[in-house]
Amino acid sequence: MSHPRRVAVSAVPASTPSLQVAVLQSEGVSGAPEANLAILEHTCGECARAGDRLLVTPELFLSGYFIGDAVGRLACSRDGDTMARVAAMARRHGIALCVGYPERDGDAVYNAVVLLGPDGGVLGHYRKHRLSGDFELGAFRRGAGNDLMAELDGMSVGVLICYDMEFPENVRRLAQAGMKLLLNPTALAQEFAIVSEKMVPTRAFENGIFIAYADRCGAEAGKRYAGGSCIVAPDGGDLARSRGGEGVIRALLEPSRYAHLEQRLPYLRDLAAG
Prior knowledge:
CATH superfamily: Carbon-nitrogen hydrolase
Helix content: 25-40%
Number of helices: 8
Structural class: alpha/beta
Number of strands: 14
CATH topology: Nitrilase/N-carbamoyl-D-aminoacid amidohydrolase
Shape: globular
Order of helices and strands: EHEHHEEEHEEHEHEEEEEEHH
CATH architecture: 4-Layer Sandwich
Number of domains: 1
Mean pLDDT: 93
Low-confidence stretches: 5-14
């Protein structure tokens, strides 16, 4: 497990910049990357017009999630044509993107995310570390657990994929390293809706961070998704939450509004004190 550089945990200054974040909740088109790229292009334009600086998509958005053996055929390299097209969208619309896709690296396929800046430049890549269920265990190689953190408009952003977030130590490790916003693409099944409803707010509260949780919706190969997308504040309260169908939710993240929590709920400070 690779650990990000630890930084001193300190109060958020009043001048900390805000960041408007959008989360796409979509059923997508199972097994059809071209159709999903078209959805992404349309959504980028919509979000840019709304003033969003970052758009987060669900887990494996470009391919569909529960697609069986097709995942190997549809997997693409991080430096191939598909990723170049996604980077061009970010650049064309001036919006940062967090996009889930199946990544091919030689003979291995990973459940992956790319994080792009609004200029289309790569801020980082992440491969899912904790695989969940028979499909994932059979289709993907486990990521090495290398943490991804990057700066976007002055805010420290980290990335985990779905089940990774359900291990509290993963989120805590990133928060101790200075992360203020966690991006979590997911394909949460309806039977586990408690994760979105209870666990995501708890992770935000116990770490004093924002979380942008991007879920799939609808059904795919008999699997029904929770449609639990949400954007949660450091106090555990919802800034935006989906009602279950397709669409975009958005929120303006203002860290200075929650600076007082680091004194009232000083979990990270007290941990750092030993």
